[in-house]
Amino acid sequence: MTTNRINDFTIKIATVNGTGSASANTLLMKSIFRSGIPVMGKNYFPSNIQGLPTWYEIRVSRDGHVARSGAVDLMVAMNAETYSRDVKEVAPGGYLVYDSTWPRPALLGRSDITVLGAPLAKMCNERFNGVRTRILMKNICYAGALAALLDLDIERIRELLAETYAKKPQLVESNMKAIGLGYDYARQHFPCPLPLKVERMDRTAGHIMIDGNTAAALGCVFAGATVAAWYPITPSTSLMDAFKGFCDRSRIDPQTGAKRFAFIQAEDELAAIGMVIGASWNGCRAFTATSGPGISLMNEFLGLAYYAEIPAVVFDVQRVGPSTGMPTRTQQCDLMECAYASHGDTRHVCLYPANPEECFYMATQAFDLAERLQTPVMVLSDLDIGMNDWMCRELKWDDAYRPDRGKVLNKEQIEKLEKFQRYLDKDGDGIPYRTLPGVHPKGAWFARGSGHSQYGTYTEDSTEYQIVLDRLVRKWDTAKKLVPRAVIDATAGSDIGIVSLGSCDSAIQEALAILKARGVAVSYMRVRAFPFGEDVERFLAAHRLLFVVEQNRDAQLRSLLTLETPIEKSKLRSLLHYSGLPISSSFIVDAVLAEVPPSSLRPAATEASAPENPPPQQRDAARA
Amino acid sequence: MTFIAKPKVVHPSLPRNALGLVRRDYEGALSTLCAGCGHDSVTAAIVEACWRQSLEPQNVVKLSGIGCSSKTTAYFVSGGHGFNSVHGRMPSIATGANAANRQLSYIGVSGDGDTLSIGLGQFCHAIRRNIDMLYIIENNGVYGLTKGQFSASADVGTKAKKGETNFQPPIDPVLLAMTLGASFVARSFSGDKEQLVPLIEAGLRHRGFALIDVLSPCVTFNDHEGSTKSYAYTREHYEPAVQADFVPPEREITAEYGAGEALAVTMHDGSRIVLRKLDAAYDPTDRSAAQARVQERLRSGEFLTGLLYVDSDGKVEGGRREFHQVNGTPEEPLNSLPYEALSPGSKDLAKLLAGYR
Asked: What is the CATH number of the domain that holds A219?
C-alpha cells in the first residue's frame, strides 16, 4: 500500500438485497460528502426483490474523481454466498471486514490483506428483538464499524439519521445504538483508524449528491412539461416517480387542489409514446421515460412522429441488452436503436448527458429542440447516471427562461392566412409551421403517417412525396446547428484523441490525468448530441488516431461516426467496455497504453513532472 | 368513389344550426371508399349529428388508426384537426390529446381489425380510463384494404367471399365494453340513420367513453350470400331494443310516449336522452341484465341495437368518473396553462436542493 491514502480509497460492501443495506450505505456516503470530501457511490444490484447478492461501491477521492477506479481497498463482506469472489477482489495491502459471528476460513486465504472480523450478527441478536430488526440493524452496525475504521464523524451520522427519520425519532436512537455497537467493537479490537481514513476537507461546497433520474425529472418540471405517460421499466421508473413527486409538491393549485399535470401509467410502452405524441400534437410538453426494450416497442410511433412532425421527448435510461439482458446493470447499447428508430428513412435527434447535472439541463433542451424542430428528441442516459448518486455542481435555474414552443401559429396569425399549408418550408430552414386543435377552423390539418404533400394533403404522387422527404433532410441540417456542441479538450496538442459520450466521461477525465502524468498526451472529444455538428467532423479530421470509448460490444458510437461523417474507418480504434459495470479509469489507461506505449511518444510539452501522489490507477496497473 | 368535386355554393334556403352553419360546413374531403360502403353512411350520420349539435368545427378532433374505417375521419368536419395514427393505436393518441385539452370533442373512428385485433389492448384501456370521447367502430367482419381476410368480429359459420368458413368465435365489442365497465354502450347499423344519428348526438354529449359499434357492411368483400355481415343479413337479423332520442337542454320532451315505455336520462350538461324500449324485456340501465340479454340474443343470431347500456341511476347519467375527474386536472386545458404556473422558479430549486447535500 502506498503512502498517503487519506481521502483516497475505495470501499466495496457486499450484502444481500432487501436487507436494508441501502440505508447503511447512503449513510456512509453522505457522511463523507458532508465532511467536504468528494465521493462517489455506485450500486450493483440484482433484478430481484430480496435474497440475491448486491454490492455498493464508495469511492472517496480528494482529487474529485467520480468514476470507478477499478480497485477495491476495503471490502465489507456481509454475504456468505459471495465471500470467495469478494475476498479475491481486494487490492494487495487492502482490508476485509466481515461478520465473525460464524467462522469463515474461506476468507482467511490471503496473506497480503488484513482481515478484520466483528461479530455483528451476534451483537445485534443480543440487543435487538425481531428477525427483521436484527437483519436491518446488522447492516447499520457495519456502518458503525466503518465509522471507527475510517475515522468518520459520528455526530454527522447522527445528524443524517435525524434528518432521515425526522418523523420517527425513536428510529434515530435504535439506529444510533447499532452504530455504537459496531463503532465501539472496532475501536476496542482494531487499529483504528486505518491508513485509509477520512479527514475533513472543503471540496464539496456548491455541490450536491443527486442521481440522474431525479435531476432529469426536475428538468422536466422546470421545462414546463405537463403530460407524462410511461410504463414501468428498470432503470427509468425512478425518473417518473420523481416527476410525480415534484409535481405533487409544486404543481397543485393551493386554492382548488387541481393538478397542473397529467401523470398516466400506460398499459405498455406503445401506448405511453402514443399518449406523448397525442398530447404534444395538442400543444402540451409531454414526455416518457423508458429503457431499451421500451424503445423497441415505441419504434413504429417514433417513425410516425418523425414523418408527421410532432414533438416528443423520450428519456432512454439504458440498461444491458440484448433482449431482457441484465436489467439492473449499465450499458450504452441503444445508440443505434435510438438514432434510427423505426422503419423507412428515419433519423432522430439524440442527446447524451454525461452526469445528473447534464440530465437536468438537457431535459429542458430536449423540449426546446423537440418543439423547435417538431420531431422526437431522445435523451440517452444510462443506469449508472440514472440510478446512482453522483456528486455534481448545484443545479441552477435562470428565471428568465421561457420555453421555445417553435413555429406554432396562434388564432390571429391563422386568421390572416389565406390558406394554411402544414408542411411548406416557408423559411428555408426545413421547419414548417404548425397549428393546434381547437384554435381556428382555417388552421385544421390532418396528421398522418401516410404519404403527404407539402400542403398537408394525402398523396401517392412521387414528386410530392419526395419534396417532403427532401425537406426533412434540410430540417436535419438545421438540427445540426441547434443541438449541444461537443465538449472538446484539444489543449494537449496531440495527434491522438479519445472520442466518447455520456457516462464514460468521468472515467476518461481521470484516465487523461493519469496518461498525462505518464507522458501520454491525448486530446478528448465528448459528443453530446446526434446529429453530429461540424465541430465533431473537425476534431475527427485533426487527429491521426482516435480511441472511441463506449460501453457496448458492437462499437455503436464508432458506427455512427463512420456512417454520418467522412472519417476514415481505420483511424477509429474501439475501446469497448460492456460488462454491465460502469467503465473504470484503469480500463481506459490500460487499453490506451497497450496501443500507445509512452516510449513511442514525445513527452507532452506541458507536463514537467509526475504529481506527488500517484493516482490509484497506477497501483491498479501494477496489480494487474 | 367519384372524381367530381363538390360545389362550394350554399343555397340560401338550406337549414342552418345555432351557429348559422349548414350541413355542408361539417363535411370533409371526398370519400375514396367503394360506392355503397357502409362507412360512408356512418360519415353522413356523423356530419348530421355534429350539425344538429352545433359543434364549433375547430372544436371537433378526429382520430383514427389504420384501415378503411380509419380513412373516414378525413371525410367529415374539415374545420377540425384530424390524426390518422398507426394501426390499432388511436386510443393512446386520443388519451394524450384529451389529457392536453379536455374541452374539445374527440371522435375516434376505428374498424373491427383496428379495434378488436391489433388494437384490442388499447381499446380496453381507453374504456378502463374512461376517456371522454366518442368511439365508433365501423364493423364489417372483414379486412378490406388487404382484400378479404376474416377479422376478429367475424361470426362462426360466416363465409368469406372466396368460400372459406370461419370457425373461431367472434370478439363482440359491445359485450366486451359492458364487461370492462364502459359507461355508454350502443350498437347500430349504418343503414339505419334514424337510430344512428341520435346515438351519435348522445355519445358526443356523454361525459366519458361512449362506444357505438356500427354494423357497416363491406360491399366489396363481405356482402355476399353466406356472410353474416352483409346488408341483407344485417337487415334481417338486427333487432332494435332501445331507441335513444336526444333532447338538448333548451328543448322540452314533446314526443308522445306511451306510459311506462320511455325513460329520460339527464346528462351532465342538462341535455337528456329519452330511451324508448322496443323490447319490453330489456333494461339499458342494468349492466348485468343488459349484458345477459345481448348475449342471449346473439346466441340466437340476432343483434340487439340501440343504446344498450348507459351508466345511470335511472334518471341522471351515472357516476363513473372520467379520466380528468380521476386525475384531478383543472377545468382549464393543460395546454393553455401559462409557463409561470408550471415552473417552481430558482428560489424553490435552491430550497429543494438543500435536501441533496
From this structure: 3.40.50.970
Same domain, A492 and A477: no
Is B16 domain-assigned? no
Domain contains B249: yes
Q: Count chain A–chain B contacts defined by CB atoms under 8 A.
A: 223
CB within 8 Å of A272: residues ≥ 6 apart: A229, A230, A231, A264, A266, A288, A290, A294, A298, B92
Which residue on chain A is closest to B55 by alpha carbon? A438
Partner residue facing B334 (CB), from A249, A284, A304: A284
ipTM of the complex as predicted: 0.96
Q: How many domains does chain A have?
A: 4
**In terms of Cα–Cα distance, which of A144, A203, A56, A121 is closest to A581?**
A56
Domain that holds residue A153: 8-189
Shortest CA distance from A206: residue in chain B:
B357
- Minimum-distance CB partner of B84 among A274, A280, A446: A446
The distance of B84 to chain A (nearest Cα, Å) reads: 5
Instruction: Indicate yes or no: CB of B74 within 8 angstroms of CB of A281.
Output: no
Mean pLDDT score of chain B, rounded to an integer?
92
Does A295 map to a domain?
yes
A257/B contact by beta carbon, under 8 A: yes
User: Tell me, what CATH number does A580's domain have?
Assistant: 3.40.50.920
Least confident span in A226-235, A573-582, B8-17: B8-17
By DSSP bridging, strand A207-211 and strand A529-530 are: unpaired
| The most confident of A167-181, A540-554, B2-16, by mean pLDDT | A540-554
The per-residue pLDDT for range B181-209, each reduced to its tens digit, is 999 999 999 999 999 999 999 999 999 99
pLDDT at A611 exceeding the cut of 70: no
Q: What is the mean pLDDT of residues A483-501?
A: 91
Search chain A and give the residue with CA nearest B67: A450
For A273-297, b where at least 16 C-beta lie within 10 A, e where not — what string?
Answer: bbbbbbbbbbbbbbbbbbbbbbbbb
A196, part of any domain: no
**Residue B3 maps to a domain:** no
**Residue A112 grid coordinates:** 497480503
How many Å apart are CA A222 and CA B343, to the nearest integer?
A: 5
In a domain, A317, yes or no: yes
With a CB cutoff of 8 Å and minimum separation 6, the contacts of A179 are: A140, A141, A143, A144, A147, A154, A157, A161
Provide the grid cell at A511: 484516465
Residues A53 and A28 in one domain: yes
Taking only the tens place, the pLDDT of each residue in A23-50 is 999 999 999 999 999 999 999 999 888 8
- Indicate whether A365 belongs to any domain: yes
Whether residue A526 sits in one domain with residue A420: no
The total of other beta-carbon atoms located within 10 Å of residue A370's CB is 27
Instruction: Tell me whether B54 touches chain A (CB under 8 Å).
Output: no
The answer to whether residue B357 is domain-embedded is no
pLDDT at A609: 38
Question: Could you tell me if A498 and A367 lie in one domain?
Answer: no
- pLDDT reported for residue A599: 62
